[in-house]
Amino acid sequence: MGNVGKILVVDDQRNMRTTLAMMLRGGGHDVDEAEDGEKACDLGASGAYDVVLTDLRMGEKDGIDVLRHIKQEQPITEVIVMTAYGTIESAVEAMRLGAFDYIQKPFTEQELIVKVQKALESRRLHGQVQLFAQEFREKYHFENIIGRSQAVRDVLGRVVKIAPTDATVLITGESGTGKELVARAVHANSRRQDKPFVIVNCAAITETLLESELFGHARGAFTGAVTARRGLFEEADGGTFFFDEIAETAMTFQAKLLRAIQDGEVRRIGENRAIKVDVRIIAATNVDLVQAVEEKSFRKDLYYRLNVARFHLPPMRDRQEDVPLLVQFFLDKYNRKMKTRTKLGEGVMERLQQYDYPGNVRELENMVEQAVALAGGGLIGVDDILPQAPSKASTTTGKTLADLVDAAERDAVENALRSCDGNRERAADMLGISPTTLWRKMTRLGISFDSRS
Questions:
Q1: How far apart are the first and last CA of the chain?
Q2: Residue 280 maps to a domain
Q3: Which one of 187, 231, 330, 358 has the lowest number of neighbouring Cβ atoms within 10 Å?
């Protein structure tokens, strides 16, 4: 089952209204009914509904009146209008006024469910953007960047200087070093702090879907595009757009992204009309982009466009003096969350300071969270928090961390390809990465997989 939501069905024909409500309740939705436009306007203005499904032709207040009223009072509530044969012009007018979609009678239950699901997905996205805009400052303060090392102080100093400007920001560093947190800090201290902060993880979305998500598309632009859709660039207008793992994008997409950044406008797939957007760009990567440019896997012009204000986040092994502060911060955080009073036992902090943290801050936080959960309010011992973690002194494998990571990645990629008979798309899905990311890893690791092998 897909997303379920709160839905208002508006139709002055009782049988039709009851039938629609039954269909939607059968899909798990919470449904209210309104027999006329006046009642629909009263109910819809409350903001209680994710989606309003309204007939166009009714009495004194018709579907267009309902649409106008709801969009004025609750802009993020999605409205689907139902049209009869011969009223397509009214449906077009409804779309112009902000309707999410229209559905022409007679329609099947499956057609209705698909339309409603798409509207719910759009409503959730709008809700997330609004949540960031309203609560962002409260949730993501500078105080969440923990550390007293010179490296951390340098980052904070640069945030103070760069954030108030509109300069494009590039954040580099290993996975788990806190690149998203710095991006949030830049936004929270900028003039855009009350506007949306939109995140896209480029490694988690295929190239085709990424382009559609960012730029939007016209109705009928490709198979499955049953309605026009605003892209995330338009959703982020006035705010900040954070591209995580930017190096995982394809060269063809990079060219389109470069043009959008340079021109300050986007074109929906299937449309020629340019749409102006005012968005600040922050990009992050754990890849050496200079090397990627040399290897021709990343566009030089896009690199220069992104590399205006640069932040490099140090790995945990280079900021060991911050370990006690971070441990205490996470200990307090998860004690509050789990309503416990867990403490560190004798010698635990010293042991934690001897560990290299290949997963950086993210690994440390996960270790503390797990230890608090297992300790149940008691003392955390060394074996509770570092059961198999080697200290620096005992790590004598003769191989660098990079060698070990590459070997593990090579095994995982080869096993996935083997189990999927060489099908890269299925293997990428199994590994939880995009096909583009898989191809990059295969190229870097020298993997040339033949399904017959």
A1: 39
A2: yes
A3: 358
Q: Model confidence over 80-125: pLDDT tens digits? A: 999 876 667 777 788 878 788 889 888 899 999 999 998 888 777 6
Closest CA to 247 of 294, 202, 195, 205: 202
Check whether residue 145 and residue 243 sit in a common domain.
Answer: yes
Domain of 237, CATH number, reads 3.40.50.300
Question: Half-sphere exposure of 419 toward its Cβ, with a 13 Å CA cutoff?
Answer: 12
pTM of the complete model? 0.56
Domain count, the chain: 4
The answer to whether 314 touches 141, Cβ cutoff 8 Å, is no
Question: What is the spatial distance between Cα 345 and Cα 111, in angstroms, rounded to a whole number?
Answer: 60
Residue 289 has pLDDT above 90, yes or no: yes
Main-chain phi, psi angles of 104, to 5 degrees: -95, 130
Q: Calculate the average pLDDT of the chain.
A: 82
Q: Which residues pair with 269 in a beta bridge?
A: 217
* Token pair 């923990």 in the structure block, residue: 146
Asked if residue 420 and residue 304 are part of one domain, the reply reads no
Among 309, 234, 314, 305, smallest CA distance to 276 is for 234
Residue range 405-410: average pLDDT? 76
Instruction: Over range 200-209, report the average pLDDT.
Output: 81
- Domain carrying residue 102: 6-124
Residues with Cβ within 8 Å of residue 61, at least 6 apart in sequence: 36, 37, 38, 40, 41
Distance CA 424, CA 437 (A): 11
Contacts of residue 212, defined as CB under 8 A and 6 or more positions apart, other chains included, come to 222, 225, 229, 231, 269
